[in-house]
Amino acid sequence: MNVSQTGLPGVKLIAPEVFGDARGWFLENWRAERFTDHGIDLGAAQINTSHSGFGVLRGLHFQWPEPQGKLVWVSAGRVFDVAVDIRSDSKHFGCWTGVELSSENHLQLWIPEGFAHGFQVLSEHATFSYLCTRPYRPDYDACVAWDDETVGVDWPHAPEALSAKDAAAPRLDQIDKERLPRCESC
């Protein structure tokens, strides 16, 4: 597998090795020892999958005070995937990076704890999966406005659908810094 850094320290793009022949293809989505060699110690606590239609936007989500790291990929369709640094004392606070993930390019994105995450579906439908470092806790669920102008994510399309939670999410500067993660090694 090939692992490269994105524009945000700690957020990594992973291109797994794909083995193909006349039958189709095979790849390893997760193998602890290989990911650990690249500084990704997932210790997966939960695996999630969502299925959404074109233009659906999910995010920008995070958990606090038990943040989640996420390894994400698309098994059907295409999405624009985004990570936003929300660590209150980071020099990259409020900065974002985005990448297209698809069932054709097989790319994965590692989003460490301390980042908000979201994606928008670019294909007719998309099936999106993620391994999380901690289980989902409804009481710790939080989000940042997908259209926060100070963050400035350049989404490919106006959203076709948003959850009520995402539509009402606060801007990053409206969230008390005590309710945001802090840098531990940045």
Task: Report on this structure.
- It is a single chain.
- The chain has 186 residues and is mainly beta.
- It has a single domain (2-18, 29-174), classed as Jelly Rolls (Sandwich).
- Helices cover 5% and strands 40% of the residues.
- The protein is built from two helices and 13 strands.
- The protein has helices at 32-36, 164-167, and strands at 2-5, 12-15, 18-21, 24-27, 46-53, 57-63, 70-76, 78-85, 96-102, 108-111, 115-121, 125-132, 141-143.
- Strands 1-2-10-7-12-5 form a six-stranded antiparallel β-sheet, with no helix packed on it. The chain has a five-stranded antiparallel β-sheet with strand order 9-8-11-6-13, with no helix packed on it.
- The longest helix has 5 residues, at 32-36.
- It starts with a strand and ends in a 19-residue tail after the last helix.
Characteristic terms for this protein:
186 residues; mainly beta; Jelly Rolls; six-stranded antiparallel sheet; five-stranded antiparallel sheet
Q: Within the largest sheet, what's the order of strands?
A: 1-2-10-7-12-5
Sheet with most strands? 6 strands, antiparallel
Average of pLDDT? 93
* Number of discrete domains: 1
Oligomer: single chain
What name does CATH use for the topology?
Answer: Jelly Rolls
Q: Structural class, from secondary structure content?
A: mainly beta
Shape: globular
Contiguous uncertain segments of 5+ residues:
none
CATH H-tier superfamily? Jelly Rolls
